[in-house]
Amino acid sequence: MKIRFLLVLFIFTGALASHAQNADSLYFRQHYDLKEYRIPMRDGAELFTAVYTPKDKSKDYPILLNRTCYNASQYSNFNYSSYPSRYLIEDGYILAFQDVRGRYMSDGEFDNMRPNIPGNNRRNKKDIDESSDTYDTIDWMIKKIKGNNGRVGMYGISYPGHYTAAGMIDAHPALKASSPQAPIADFFFDDFHHQGAYLESYTAAFAVFGYQKDSLTRDPWYMDKLMRLYGNPAADAYDFYLKLGPLKNITKNYHHDNFFWNQIVEHPNYDEFWQKRNILPHLKDIDHAVMTVGGWFDAEDLYGPLNIYKTVEATSSKAKNSIVMGPWDHGGWAREKGKTVHNHIYFGDSISSFYLKNIERKFFAHHLKEDGPDTLPEAYMFDTGAKKWETFDTWPPKEIEPISLYFGENGQLSINEPIDKKAVFEYTSDPKKPVPYTSQIEGLTFTPRRYMSDDQRQASRRPDVLTFETDVLEDDRVLAGEIMAKLKVAMTGTDADFIVKLIDVYPNDHENYEHNPDNIIMGGYQQLVRAEVFRGRFRNSFENPEPFVPGEPSDVNFRLQDILHTFKKGHRIMIQVHSTWFPYIDRNPQKYVDNIYKANEDDFIKSTIKVFGSSSIEVGGTQDCCAPEPFRTANENPIKD
To answer: Which one of 130, 291, 588, 630 is most buried, counting C-beta atoms within 10 A?
Structure first.
């Protein structure tokens, strides 16, 4: 059971490693003192906080705060798991790890993405949110912990990244530097959903986020619920979820008593429940340094870092705002593996160490210690095709020209020149035989990660997948910025999902890589660069879905998130379009029902779907429709403040 717990905990945090007493742990013990506190909040609740203070008392130190729902007490007893990095530990900071309200050793009730109270609530002595809890924590530490220099920084990966972003709102004056890393911005677009489509791969996660503890504890209280799925995990998730059937069977068999699952079931659309949990509209008038960090291959939280950065850029002129995006999966920058390999693709050596030493370390040193010049660029972005770091004064970069991609007969893909706007391409989507999301057999895992750069040949050979590719490129082609799918579609059913993929097709004579198994052939490899799903019912409003009229052409426009990728000379650019992506995404019945979480087996029908030649994929720059969430246009569901 202990082994299972450690494995699951690793998966959920994305940044934790073994707690063995290694050389770094020994350094930690030799150079720091540990004390545990219960810090009082304005409403009387007390939040457990483990604080490490340097033994050297000859100078004062800034405080680095990490607020987490993943058990702050695991950091007690000098356990070290490369978080924060050894560079920060060696530089000397007061390190604070806090259980957020309602988790582990802290008082109160847990609320997923607890709604922010609009306006300046710092004078309010009763109402609380994550921002007020952060404010009260910082205020107490500045006054009570000896040897601090009056400056505080925050950092966190994944859910702790969200808590870092929440702490930026109506911030305490002592907060000088925040680094939300792989942060959640909005659970309707991050993690549990992608643009309203449910991530079926997240089914096990509800055990961690959907049960309240009944006492202060250093141990997880939800293990028996988690073992409902992991007690005898399936070796083939595709087969498991197909046999499980409609989402209503998840309620029946696994999550009937889970408060968060039941909230999702009762709120299938982007109503007030979700809108008030969106952090983006509240990121206003931030006046300190912000460095948002993400991974181009983060299957969990890619939307969050990109849109938090863009929102702060749009709303907070006083903020020193920057972004870092590297060739990592979820939290991959927090630990060095030597060679950076995602799935089958090698990107270079010691890339995480470069970030930790030359970017993160310098960011906190300058803003919290006034140590060293402020030399970091606005955007430190890794080109996943050229496999090198690039720096930009703005993101998206203005100097890289946008392109438009158009579909043509016989699988043609044209750059910047429409081929035939009257052409029609069609496929039959059968939810009982969905397109797999990966070329590999995956067991019952939490949010699979490898697929983000996986070979797409298995999909391009299916009749229910439209595939278009350019001629061989005569020169390198750099694509940078936002991607917008502008589809004109019609169907025989009344609802459908649309998955659009941007793919890098390798030359047929491309050499194999030494790090791969012998059966992985790189000649003709179709590397996924970016993909996204969109639930068609939300094409006009995420809050008020509507069915398609069979046979009637409709516009379906949606974002795929940003990229920086060089398609090299000799490669091709490919686009794929299809309507199932299983079991990463749940299956759309394709017959419109009010609530897919309550759909019956007989609601799932085949649908013949047409995509018209007037469709296009726009790549680069900032797309007109693609402003950060609080600034969406009217037909994209404006957010209520």
So the answer is: 588
